[in-house]
C-alpha cells in the first residue's frame, strides 16, 4: 500500500456549501477505506488546528447554513482514527497563531524539515 501525504494550503474549501472542508472529508474517506494517509497543513489551513474555534451561522439572502463547519473537531476525529497531522510552524507565526491552543496530537514542524517528511511518502497530493 502506498503512503500518501496530503498537503492542504487552501483553507475552508467548500465550507459555505457544506458542513466540512471537502479535502478533509476526502482524506477521511480514504482512511476509512483502508488507505494510509497523513495531512500537512500549510498557509491558511494551519488555522484548522486551532482548538475551539467559534464559527457562527452564515446567511446568504434567505438561505441560512445552520451547521457551520467545525474543522478542528473534524481533524481531531481524523487523528483519532490514526491519521497523522503536521503543520508548519512558520505559517503559524505569520498568522499570529504561534501561541494559540491547538488540538492535541498535531505535530509542528519547520519548513526546513519538509524534505525529510516528503521522503517518508510514496505520493504527495497538494490541495
- Count helical runs: 4
Percent range for β-strand residues: 15-25%
Strand order of the largest sheet: 6-5-2-1-7
What is the total tally of β strands?
7
Number of domains: 1
By CATH reckoning, the class would read: Alpha Beta
- What is the helix fraction of residues, given as a range? 25-40%
CATH superfamily: DsrEFH-like
SSE topology string: EHEEEHEHEHE
Shape: globular
Report the CATH topology name.
Answer: Hypothetical Protein Ychn, Chain: A
**What is the CA-atom radius of gyration, in angstroms?**
15 Å
Mind summarizing the main beta sheet?
A: 5 strands, parallel
Q: Gap between N and C termini, in Å?
A: 22 Å
The stretches of 5 or more residues where confidence is low (pLDDT under 50) are none
The average pLDDT is 89
Given helix and strand content, the structural type is alpha/beta
CATH architecture: 3-Layer(aba) Sandwich
Care to describe what's here?
There is one protein chain. By secondary structure, the protein is an alpha/beta fold. The chain has one domain (3-126): Hypothetical Protein Ychn, Chain: A (3-Layer(aba) Sandwich). The chain has four helices and seven strands; from the N terminus they run E-H-E-E-E-H-E-H-E-H-E. The protein has helices at 22-32, 71-80, 89-94, 114-118; strands at residues 3-8, 36-41, 58-60, 63-65, 85-88, 107-109, 123-126. The strands form two sheets. Strands 6-5-2-1-7 form a five-stranded parallel β-sheet. The two termini are 22 Å apart.
Features:
two-stranded antiparallel ribbon, 25% helix, globular, 127 residues, 23% strand, alpha/beta, Hypothetical Protein Ychn, Chain: A
Amino acid at each position: 500500500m502506498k503512503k500518501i501525504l496530503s498537503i492542504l494550503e487552501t483553507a475552508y474549501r467548500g465550507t459555505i456549501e457544506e458542513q466540512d472542508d471537502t479535502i478533509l472529508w476526502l482524506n477521511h474517506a480514504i482512511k476509512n477505506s483502508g488507505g494510509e494517509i497523513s495531512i500537512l497543513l500549510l498557509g491558511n489551513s494551519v488555522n484548522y488546528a486551532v482548538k475551539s474555534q467559534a464559527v457562527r451561522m452564515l446567511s446568504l439572502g434567505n438561505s441560512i447554513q445552520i451547521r457551520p463547519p467545525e474543522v478542528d473537531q473534524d481533524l481531531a476525529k481524523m487523528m483519532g482514527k490514526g491519521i497523522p497531522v503536521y503543520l508548519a510552524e512558520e505559517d503559524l507565526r505569520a498568522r499570529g497563531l504561534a501561541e494559540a491552543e491547538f488540538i492535541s496530537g498535531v505535530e509542528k514542524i519547520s519548513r526546513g524539515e519538509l524534505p525529510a517528511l516528503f521522503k517518508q511518502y510514496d505520493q504527495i497530493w497538494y490541495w
